[in-house]
Each structure stands twice: as C-alpha cells, then as structure tokens.
Amino acid sequence: MIDCCIFDLDGVVVDTARYHYLAWAALARELGFEFTPVQGEATKGVSRMASLEIVLRAGGLEGRFSAAERERLAAEKNARYLRFVSQMTPAEVLPGVAAFLHDVRSRGVRTVLGSASKNAGTILDRCGLRPLFDAVVDGNEVSRAKPDPEVFLKGAAAVDAAPSVCVVFEDAAAGIEAASRAGMRSVGVGGGASLSAATMRLETFAGFTFEQLAMKIDR
Ligand code: B16
Ligand code: MG
Asked: How far is the CA of 16 from the centre of ligand 2 (A)?
C-alpha cells in the first residue's frame, strides 16, 4: 500500500543544481580559483555548510577560515543563489511533475516535500507548487543531513503516515540511503549511476502515473 509520496526538491521537482553551481563557482572565483561543474556534482543533496567545505577543499583552502568567516561566505553564496531563485517561474518545474502530483492527490494519497534546502519554501512559491503539498519539511526544520533519515521521518509524521506506506522520490544516493534507513521504499529519479539501491528507477516523470508506481512498487 502507498499512502504518502515524499519528494526531494532539487533534482526531482526542479533543477536548481545549476543555480547552486553558478553561485558556488562565483564565490570560488572571488577566492581565486575555478570550481568546475564536475566538482560541483559533489554538492548535490548536501547541506549549505557542507557544500562550502567541498568548495573550499577544491581550492585547497580548507581550514583557512574561522567559523564566522565561513558563515559570511555561505551567506554570500546564498544571496547570489537567491537572485537566481527570485527569477524562477512555474516553467522550471521538471516535466510531468505537476501532473504526477495532481494524480497522486486525486487518489487521496498525501504529498510531502522533504528537502535539505533552507530555500525550499521560496522555490515552491515561485513555481506555484505550494498548494500541491500537504506538508513541507526542509533544511530549516532538520538538524541531521541525509543520509540521516530525519527529514523523511519528520515528513511522514507531519501527515501521520507510517514509514511502511511511504515512497520517497530522490535523485541523490544519500537520499536513497536516508529513505532506506527510515524504513521507506524509494524511487531513484534521473540517470545518476549511484542510485542502484533504490526500490525502482525512474528516468522522468513525463507520462508517469500513480497506477504505474503502485504496479511496480506494491507487487
Ligand atoms: P540551501 P535537495 C539540496 O536540495 C541541494 O541539492 C544542495 O545542492 C544544497 O546545498 C542543499 O539543498 C541546501 O540548499 O543552500 O538552499 O539551503 O536536493 O535536498 O532538495
Ligand atoms: Mg536532490
């Protein structure tokens, strides 16, 4: 039985990874080095401060900044990132996602957002998606990052669903592990090679229905 679908945000519902990357790369340039797209991959699904550590390590600057300076650098990156986010429109919702959310909800199944991002609410509002979620749990409410299951367990609790009836949609390996540690089934979204632990894989939501999900996952 599936009673609740929990969605990661970046890489599943919208593709904000390129904005994160552009903002980190600009910060790196200010600090005097290039942060490449390949290096940027490692920041996906990772919290803001942990991402900063990845960027600083790429420039050989780990351990160079005090906690207060790191906070300032992260704030600078976030201000730049929010400039991109403030331009987002519903056209940036990934193909098929809105239709799938409507389909899920029409079956009486709850929809929850479970994201590491502290900007998740702003992004949902920009993209007109807020009304399609029964609950939103984001980086403001979670203290332990994926692969810790906290974000998904809080999401399930917010709609009073047992983990065994939840399915998590994730594009990052850490998120798939978090789902499994929460006792939930998972769908690995996109072409990432590191999602083999997911209960099933899904290239795109375009044309995907709740009935197909139930058939594949509830056998
Ligand atoms: P923020 P997700 C994650 O979102 C992003 O994948 C990751 O790149 C980012 O560092 C993290 O959110 C924190 O984002 O700086 O906006 O709080 O994939 O968990 O939806
Ligand atoms: Mg993600």
From this structure: 9
Residue 23, SS3 per DSSP: helix
Whole-model pTM: value is 0.94
Ligand approaching nearest to the C-alpha of 115: 1
Residue 7's CB: how many other CB atoms inside 10 A?
27
pLDDT tens by residue, 57-114: 999 999 999 999 999 999 999 999 999 999 999 999 999 999 999 999 999 999 999 9
**Predicted ipTM beyond 0.85:** yes
C-alpha distances (whole Å) from 38 to each of 11, 30, 46, 49, 68 are 16, 19, 15, 19, 28
Residue for token pair 């945000």: 9
- The residue behind tokens 């998606």 is 129
